[in-house]
Design a protein that fits this description.
The complex is a heterotrimer of chains A (465), B (216) and C (240). Chain A is an alpha/beta fold and 465 residues long. Chain A is built from 22 helices and 10 strands. Chain A has a 6-stranded parallel beta sheet with strand order 1-10-7-4-2-3, sandwiched between helices. In chain A, strand 5 and strand 6 form a beta hairpin. With 216 residues, chain B is α/β, with parallel strands linked by helices. The chains are: A alpha/beta (465), B alpha/beta (216), C alpha/beta (240).
């Protein structure tokens, strides 16, 4: 297939340490999730999934209504709402605010949305120090790398990688014990939290009836980012909305369990606006930045808009046999795994990385574990037909098109089918090792056409002519 | 057109609608809040079990007067910051010499918390099924006391224990009406970001204690 | 005598005809006259999965004609059954006669093990095979047809057979049709994980309800020179 990053795939597949890291990390998450949603622990797991899907469907299909409700409630609680069409607009807003407030230092908690728009790069170009505070993301920031997994960003790195990194970038003595590495990060980042002018977080959920953001975490860095600095900015995609605070009963019961097997993560923050009168601490200013960046494009396709239901639990990545082999960095965008495979072509167009929807055996393990019941395999199939259609219009992929046209013709002409089969069995029982079949043949022993097909054998038994 | 207008118009177009949506054509079904299956008499026990599973420690004391005794060892040789929760005062927590309390100024509070060994708070609710403490920011409870010091101690009356998140949301349908911050604390701060090894006390407290007062 | 029409699938027809013969044998043994409509070819899945729904539609249309009069269509393949029962509808336009026909067809098409258990109502087909085997849950059968316990119940009644579960039973073998041709390294790596799991059981044979899975595993097993055999469930049940 054109533009498949075969070299990179091969490198990843040939690295036994990396293969083991990916496999065992995902296996842990698989096992923990299975225990947390088992029928004796969460008897109505399937009912919750169905309800979550319904709530998301309703919300997405009335997204304008709920966005307006969200906005008016944020404002009522003393916050401000900034709508941004692109990542540039987000950066412009934050830079503008930072300039107005004389801000120099920003602390950030984990947010895939900000990765999506290269937020840190934008800000660093304008000399605004932006520090990732989630341990895994902090490590990646120091290493200038992309997250490997939605929930476990530094999955691919060892303690030795971290030791080298810390020595190189922080100037500390070599420290290879993870507990001590964590202490180093804690001490360094504690200073940043206490001196930061602005805290930026993502949001797992936006609550329309409350004007609130919900941030789910285990470390405490999101709490610190949203509580220590005087300004809190939450950046979220417009699709993160759910209608009511009470709907969190459904979503929070699904999110932690699906992601890591935790019924609730260490901290779940429900934040609505700056601190109220009488509250002793908390930010003086709160801004909710709502990002489109192409989400309205996904919204316009009734069949595929369910992609927007995603709550970023990462379960589909953990269960995907393809992700578990190629890992997160072999996907073209920040969103990897099955969810990445369906949203990347929708955001970027099917002409780019056109191989991506085909990089799946359609095993369906993802759909089985998706807490909001996104029909991932169905959407992959839909995208595949969009890729071939785009190729047809463009005039590429003619050979494959012809192959399948011939396939359909042969399969609708039974006598031709039978004749070709018996010719093949006689003259070319093993498929020729040419073109795409050459690589296929390099990895396995090829099957042989049987000397007599079932048709022939059955016919002989029945005395057919 | 502003970005806001463009986005909202884009949404309406994408959904195949003309005109604005000022009301919902079809309302969403009522929230799914399951009734607690757990008997009230088991709340303390189940709460303790679940918090201890997460390496938290739970002391159950018969009445408010027994609270200082439960905390004496923990506080020995340490300095602590306590919140302004009236419950802490009535349980004699403020009486300890090494406990500073009564902060109304954000900067002073933050500096104290940054150097304190222990942060002591009450909690608005606790959730038995997950071993969770629920804290609403208020004049009585600042955010950073349960966050900056490496140890967090929460003293709560057992009457504040609810079964689970569903019961919490049935009790407080709209937390935003009461506070700018409601935090559900379920165990100590933790990470598994380095080689999937579980480490506690990354940014938030690595040790969590709950003192449950049975009579209140 | 009740009658069952056999759709052997193009993979079985061309590469593993013995599976078709075994399936017919077992069906006869449990009291069904086996009908084999000669004009059958393929279910169209290769085209559908490769993003050519129009080509798949043509093949599906042909299938509808061939099996129009069949009361029961038995298929020794989970993925083909799933294509027919669940995806034929996706290739015909909304509101067309063919789409309705495809919808009704779903009720008449049966994956082989489900036919035995739910239509013929038998668990013991009188089979005997003295061997240690492990069972691979083919993805479409498992997730789209809910075939999980059924084959295990059938295997439990095979005299002399020892079933050992592998830990990766539900993991994909890596075939995925054209996936294995387009991403051969990843496909082989997926098979490798599966085969390692099979080896750990010590079983000498891996059984499945899908010949394409078995073909995929066989290819990598033979390249690795391992003494593991592959057998379709029908072949196990036909053994005496």
């Amino acid at each position: 297939m054109p533009d498949v990053p075969t070299e990179q795939f091969a490198q990843t597949l040939a690295d036994p340490r990396l293969q083991l890291a990916i496999y065992s990390a995902t296996q842990r998450l698989i096992d923990h999730r299975a225990a947390a949603v088992a029928v004796d622990r969460l008897p109505d797991y399937q009912a919750l999934r169905t309800r979550a899907n319904e709530i998301k469907r309703h919300t997405i299909e009335h997204l304008d209504y709920y966005l307006e409700q969200l906005e008016s409630n944020v404002i009522a609680h003393g916050g401000k709402v900034i709508f941004c069409r692109t990542g540039d607009e987000v950066a412009d807003f934050v830079l503008g605010l930072a300039k107005e407030r004389n801000a120099r230092l920003i602390v950030k908690s984990k947010s895939m949305t900000t990765e999506e728009i290269h937020f840190n790069d934008h800000l660093e170009r304008h000399q605004l120090e932006t520090v990732e505070t989630d341990l895994g993301e902090y490590i990646l920031q120091l290493a200038h790398q992309r997250p490997y997994h939605i929930v476990a960003p530094a999955l691919h790195m060892t303690r030795y990688d971290v030791a080298d990194l810390f020595t190189r970038t922080l100037g500390v003595d070599k420290e290879e014990v993870p507990e001590n590495q964590t202490k180093i990060a804690r001490a360094t980042l504690r200073e940043k939290f206490l001196h930061a002018d602005i805290g930026v977080t993502g949001a797992n959920f936006l609550i329309a009836d409350s004007g609130a953001v919900v941030v789910v975490e285990n470390e405490g860095n999101a709490r610190l980012s949203s509580s220590a600095p005087k300004i809190h900015i939450a950046v979220a995609g417009i699709e993160k909305l759910i209608p009511r605070a009470q709907d969190l009963a459904v979503f929070l019961n699904l999110l932690g369990r699906s992601a890591t097997g935790q019924p609730l993560t260490s901290y779940t923050s429900f934040l609505s606006g700056p601190r109220r009168t009488g509250e002793i601490d908390g930010p003086d200013e709160f801004y909710l930045v709502l990002l489109d960046n192409g989400r309205t494009k996904l919204l316009s396709d009734p069949e595929k808009r369910q992609s927007l239901y995603c709550i970023r639990c990462g379960a589909c990545l953990n269960h995907c046999p393809v992700y578990r082999k190629i890992g997160g960095h072999n996907y073209p965008w920040v969103y990897s795994g099955p969810i990445g495979a369906i949203i990347t072509p929708q955001f970027h167009g099917v002409a780019e990385d056109s191989w991506l929807p085909f990089a799946s055996s359609l095993c369906g393990a993802c759909a089985e574990v998706c807490p909001v019941k996104i029909e991932i395999p169905k959407l992959l199939l839909k995208l595949r037909s969009e890729v071939t259609e785009a190729q047809r219009i463009q005039g590429s992929g003619a050979l494959e098109r012809l192959t399948f046209w011939l396939f359909a013709w042969v399969m609708t002409h039974p006598r031709v089918y039978r004749m070709l089969a018996s010719l093949g069995a006689k003259w070319a029982p093993v498929p020729p090792k040419v073109g795409p079949l050459k690589k296929w043949a390099s990895t396995r022993e090829l099957p042989r056409l049987a000397p007599k097909s079932f048709h022939q054998l059955w016919g002989e038994r029945r005395g057919w002519p | 057109m502003t970005a806001r207008e463009q986005i909202l118009t884009g949404i309406r177009t994408a959904l195949g609608r003309t005109g604005s949506a000022s009301s919902l054509p079809a309302p969403l079904v009522a929230p799914l809040l399951r009734d607690p299956q757990l008997g009230r008499n088991l709340y303390i026990q189940v709460f303790a079990q679940n918090l201890e599973k997460l390496s938290g420690k739970v002391f159950v004391v018969p009445d408010g007067g027994a609270v200082p005794g439960a905390l004496r060892e923990l506080l020995r040789g340490k300095n602590a910051v306590a919140s302004n929760a009236p419950f802490l005062k009535s349980c004699g927590v403020i009486g300890f010499e090494q406990v500073r309390s009564g902060f109304a100024d954000r900067e002073a509070l933050r500096d104290s918390c940054a150097s304190a060994d222990i942060g002591i708070t009450s909690a608005d609710y606790a959730l038995a099924e997950t071993g969770t403490l629920v804290m609403l920011a208020s004049p009585a409870e600042a955010r950073l006391i349960s966050l900056l010091p490496p140890v967090h101690v929460a003293v709560i009356p057992q009457s504040r224990i609810l079964a689970n998140l569903d019961e919490l949301l049935a009790t407080i349908p709209k937390p935003a009406e009461q506070t700018s911050s409601m935090v559900l604390i379920t165990g100590p701060s933790r990470t598994a970001d380095i080689e999937q090894i579980l480490i506690r006390g990354v940014h938030g407290p690595g040790e969590l204690y709950a003192v449950v007062v049975e009579s209140l | 005598m009740p009658r069952a029409s056999l759709f052997v699938t193009c993979v079985v027809d061309q590469l593993f005809p013995q599976v078709g013969l075994a399936a017919a044998e077992v069906l006869q043994r449990v009291g069904y006259e086996v009908d084999f409509p000669q004009a059958q070819t393929c279910c169209g899945q290769p085209a559908f999965n490769s993003g050519y729904p129009e080509e798949a539609r043509k093949v599906a249309q042909h299938f509808l004609g061939v099996f129009r009069d069949s009361e029961y269509i038995v298929v020794p393949s989970g993925s083909c059954t799933s294509m027919i029962a669940h995806h034929f509808m996706d290739v015909f336009p909304e509101g067309s006669n063919e789409r309705d026909e495809a919808r009704r067809l779903g009720a008449r098409v049966w994956e082989f093990s489900r036919f035995l258990l739910e239509v013929a109502g038998v668990e013991d087909v009188g089979a005997r095979l003295e061997r240690a085997v492990t069972y691979h849950d083919s993805c479409h059968a498992l997730r789209e047809l809910r075939v999980k316990d059924g084959p295990r119940r059938l295997l439990a009644k095979v005299r002399g057979l020892e079933l050992r579960e592998m830990d990766a039973a539900e993991q994909c073998c890596g075939f995925g049709g054209t996936f294995s041709v387009k991403f051969p390294d990843v496909s082989a790596a997926m098979a490798g994980t599966k085969i390692e799991s099979i080896r750990k059981t010590g079983a000498e044979t891996v059984v499945s309800v899908d010949s394409s899975c078995l073909m995929q595993l066989e290819g990598v097993i033979r390249r690795a020179g391992l003494p593991i055999r592959t057998m379709h469930l029908a072949e196990v049940l036909a053994s005496r």
